[in-house]
Every structure is written in C-alpha cells, then in structure tokens.
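Hi F.,

I've been meaning to write this up properly since the lab meeting, where we talked about keeping a consistent format for the predictions we share between groups. The idea is simple: the sequence comes first, exactly as it goes in, then the structure tokens exactly as they come out, then a line or two of notes. No screenshots and no reformatting. I'm using this chain as the first example so we have something concrete to point to.
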Amino acid sequence: MKTSGLIDLQVNGYRGVDFSGPNLDEADVMRACRELRRAGTTAFLPTLITSSPDLYQRNLPILARAIERPQCRGKVLGVHLEGPFISPRDGARGAHDRQWVRPPDLDYLKRLIDWANGTVKLITIAAELPGAEKLARWATDHGIAVSLGHQMADDEDLARLVAAGARSLTHLGNGLPASIDRHVNPIWAGLGNDDLTALIIPDGHHLPPSLLKAIIRTKSPQRCISVSDASPLAGMPPGPYDSMGAAVELEESGRIYNPATGYMAGSSATLRTCFDHLASLDLVSSEELAAMVFDNPLKLIGVHPDEIAALSDDEETNDKSEEKP
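Output, unedited:
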C-alpha cells in the first residue's frame, strides 16, 4: 500500500542510537536519520524522555544542530519533549525515571526550548498536574503542539487542558498502571473527548486489535495518528539490554519490557511496521491509513507537506531491508 510518506512523531532512538543517551552526538542523529529513512520513515521527531537537567542541556543543542544540517533538513522536523512534566505515579510514569519527573514549570520549559534553539515541536504533559494549563497555554501561543499523556487525568482535567490549547493524547491506551478504575480512567476520558486527536502505537504489542478498533472507530481516522514509539533497541537483535536507564528484555516477538516492573519500555518497531500491522487489521481504508501516518501528524505539529524531503529511489528500494522480522 502506497502513501505520501510516513511521519513519526515519537522516535526515542533507533539501532542503538538513544536520543536521551549521555553519549549522543550529531553523527548519531544523522546515522539514525539515514537508517530510519532506509526503513521507510520519511521524517520524524526525535523524542527525549524525562531526563536530568544536565542531559537536556547536553542533548538538546546536539539535536538542534543536527536538525539544521542539510542531511537532516526535511527529515528531522523538530524535537518531541515527552516529559518531564508527567505523572510521578508508577505505571503512568512508564519507563521514565521518577527522580527527574517534575511539576509543570514554565520557566524550566523556556530553558528547555532555549537549549533546543526553538526546535521543540511537541510536548507531552500530564493534564491533572497543577500548572499544566498555564504551561499548555504558553506553549500553544508559541507554536508548540501540546499532547496529554503519562497521566491519570479524568474528563474535567482533559477539558481544562483542551481549553488551554492541548490538541492530542500521547500513546492513548499506554503509559498507565496495570490496574485502573473500570470507568474513571484516562482511556475512557480520552475516548470521550472529541477535541483530542489520539496518538496510538499499532506495533502489535502495545494495543490489542480490539482496543485499536475501539479507538479508531470512536475517534475516527481523521483524529488518529500512528506513531512507532521506537526505542533505541528498534532494529536490534533479541536479548537483554540496558536501555533508557533500565535493564530491559527484547523478545524474539519484538516486545520490549522491563522484567523488574513488567511494563513495556518502548517499541522495537518502525512506523513502516506499524503501518503494515494496521493495514493487516482492515480497520480503515487505504486513504484513511495514509492520513494517519502523513497528513494528520503534519497537521498536528504545523508542518506543510512541501517541507518534507521525499524518499529517494535508493531509500525506497531499501525500506524493507532494514525491517525487524
């Protein structure tokens, strides 16, 4: 199935490159860009998970410089800050390190944006936290898309943040405790809010087909965006690893999880893998699926399709050769 391109708004790393890693350099960013393009990802947002101030101050300028390089222009579209303004609660926090989680702080956000030289395109915050509305309103006014995730928000929390400018839900159905209230929980609240677009991870592990179907049917394909949530282990062989600050296991199936907690720790998929999995479920038309991986993500972050560098013939030839089975 052909599409105009695959735009991934949530890429934590690829083939050993960790955008939140302490040894990241510009060459790593360009290598990840090159390898992702060969795997079919047309353009993406490198995503930093919740990190220490020192790590942000080190890595955000590296990403900003790489984004300006000709090799990355039209391919690396900006930065996604997934945190640090998220829930500290186990489960909701996911694989993020609790010691670096912090309440919404506008002055700190401005420092992060300065370190990133204004390249931040998307931020993920928890809606229920005090100060979230102020932060969302400022970010929206400055052209940064606000997504809500890693949270324990209810209907009222989401409504307040929508009024402050929030526009989407980060990996709806994930980033939650294993046990939640059957009726009052962020999944139902997210499904019930018609103003928020749902980012989903259709990699075959994060969401069962029934929940994918429920989200897409409820939200409509026009309000859904497919992301990979690719971890630095995407494209790597199965085995035990240290990744994003924790010991994790990459199974033969492609599932990545933290044995100590049982929670998943990102994805081993590329957006091409997610695209193919969604297509196999026959939940949407080819036109709707194409919008979920190209038009809808670009619209969320305010990037015009003309700004995207098309895949070359050589990249398109190799796009499946880099896929993990």
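Notes:
The two ends are 19 Å apart (CA to CA).
The chain has a mean pLDDT of 94.

If this format works for you, I'll send the rest the same way.

G.
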